[in-house]
């Protein structure tokens, strides 16, 4: 959940609705008091907006608890299906999941946050809370650092980002969960300027034992870029060329 209480009370019907939908983007339902605290809306305005959203099926009410409604889920699914990046990436994401046995994520950079567009293999580890549409601070994750590496001005002088730019890969050990590691590689920058990246998340033992996992992540990123006409550059082009014959399901 992202708190919208920044000191400025949202005004206008759409702003109030957007602020409520933003704070309801977590897994757990919220009651009216929690929504008021998170959005900064007056109690009466929040309650009125919530009732309108419930009537539109954008929000579902169960007793005193609110959560995102079925209409939002339907719209989100439609938007996901229409996303060109996701469509181009799906064959490679499923290939990457098959060859590594790891959880696979596709993400884009929105401001200073990663937004997950796709997740494959999520049932493998119950403690992983990432889901399609969820967000996290870019600088706290491997996939986020891979995304930041695509912006030549972001975190200029940061050793981690500089290394990610050079290698076109980020490897983190037990940062998000004990016993697990993450490997991420940048795909490229989409037509509207959004950096995109792919990552795998698996046990430390698996990722340390099989160095081909690192190369498979880079190969998948390069193949997704190829489908989107985003030519790889530098070290990534040389490393992935030997693996072009796999075609990643293309």
From TrEMBL:
Source species, domain of life: Bacteria
Biased composition (Basic residues): 236-250
One Pfam family in the UniProt entry: HTH_IclR
InterPro entries: GAF-like_dom_sf, HTH_MetabolicPath_Reg, Tscrpt_reg_IclR_C, Tscrpt_reg_IclR_N, WH-like_DNA-bd_sf, WH_DNA-bd_sf
Domain HTH iclR-type as annotated: residue spans: 11-70
Record region (Disordered): 231-250
UniProt KW keywords: DNA-binding, Transcription, Transcription regulation
Keyword Cell cycle attributed: no
Keyword Transport tagged: no
GO biological process: negative regulation of DNA-templated transcription
Ranges for domain IclR-ED: 71-250
GO MF annotations, alphabetized: DNA binding; DNA-binding transcription factor activity
Protein name from the UniProt record: Helix-turn-helix domain-containing protein
């Amino acid at each position: 959940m992202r708190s919208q209480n920044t000191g400025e009370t949202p005004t206008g019907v759409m702003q109030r609705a957007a602020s409520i939908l933003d704070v309801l983007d977590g897994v757990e339902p919220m009651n009216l008091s929690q929504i008021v605290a998170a959005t900064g809306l007056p109690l009466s305005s929040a309650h009125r907006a919530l009732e309108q959203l419930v009537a539109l099926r954008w929000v579902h009410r169960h007793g005193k608890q609110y959560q995102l409604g079925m209409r939002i889920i339907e719209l989100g699914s439609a938007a996901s299906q229409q996303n060109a990046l996701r469509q181009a990436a799906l064959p490679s994401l499923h290939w990457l999941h098959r060859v590594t046995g790891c959880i696979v994520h596709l993400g884009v950079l929105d401001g200073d946050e990663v937004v997950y567009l796709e997740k494959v293999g999520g049932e493998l580890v119950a403690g992983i809370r990432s889901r399609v549409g969820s967000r996290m601070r870019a600088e706290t994750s491997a996939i986020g650092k891979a995304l930041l590496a695509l912006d030549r001005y972001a975190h200029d002088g940061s050793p981690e980002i500089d290394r990610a730019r050079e290698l076109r890969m980020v490897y983190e050990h037990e940062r998000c969960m004990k016993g697990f590691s993450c490997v991420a590689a940048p795909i490229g920058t989409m037509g509207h300027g959004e950096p995109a990246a792919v990552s795998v998340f698996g046990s430390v033992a698996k990722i340390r034992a099989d160095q081909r996992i690192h190369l498979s992540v880079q190969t998948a990123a390069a193949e997704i870029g190829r489908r989107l006409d985003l030519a790889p550059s530098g070290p990534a082009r040389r490393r992935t060329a030997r693996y072009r014959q796999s075609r990643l399901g293309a």
